Amino acid sequence: MRSTAELVAQLRAGSRLSLRALAELSGTSSATLSNYEQGSKEPRLSTLERLASAAGMRLEVRVQPVGRSLRGRSSAAATAFRIARAIDAREDDTAFRRCLELLDVLKAVPVEGVQFLTREAPVLSGDHRYDALIAAIVEHCCVNREVATPPWVYEAERSVQQWYVAGRKSLRADADRETPPVFRRHGVMILTDELARA
Fold it and tell me: Which CATH architecture has domain 4-54?
């Protein structure tokens, strides 16, 4: 379950508003909002609803068991750990396959499972390309499944200047044309059939 501090930070990151702007729109002070984000103060449910509304979102509270449907499923954090091991072993194909497995999992689990499997920020793998790819996959799935995107996805180190996943120069024009916007924002240029393999 996501902490309230993470939720408030995610609301602000998702709205792309400054701390001051979100505070003003929601009728609270910047200092109070900062305390919410740092976890030193807990907002009431009504305050969370106001913050979500000011951020252009809606707060929904659901209580549902997710454990059984997630048995044996790897989280984004666990996937990053496996990718780091593959990179250390110089197994680039394995690292990429692990990313596609994460995409498969996030497409298959219930919406609550997407939240559960992506809430913990993965450690950086040692290869910025894969850190950007993991973040792009998580954001892509969250957007498509209409789930709040975790704030760690927006960290600067989870983007690259530009990485053509296919590698071959002859496929770059296709990747320029086909790359979904979320992947493009992270600097990951990928062919739609690469994503369809998942």
Answer: Orthogonal Bundle (1.10)
pLDDT in tens, 50-70: 998 998 888 877 654 444 445
- Alpha-carbon radius of gyration of the chain: 18
- Is pTM beyond 0.90? Reply is no
Q: In whole angstroms, give the CA distance from residue 83 to residue 102.
A: 11
Q: With 0-12 CB in 10 A as exposed, 13-18 as middle and 19+ as buried, what is 78?
A: middle
Domain boundaries, the chain: 4-54, 68-196
Beta strands in the chain (DSSP E): 163-164, 188-189
Q: What torsion, rounded to 10 degrees, do the Cα atoms 28, 33, 35, 36 define?
A: 110
**Cα separation, 63 vs 51, whole angstroms:** 21
DSSP letter (8 states) at residue 189: E
Nearest CA among 86, 66, 4 for reference residue 40:
4
Helix (H) or strand (E) holding 66: none
Q: How far apart are CA 86 and CA 80, in angstroms?
A: 10
How far is CA 45 from its chain centroid? Answer: 24
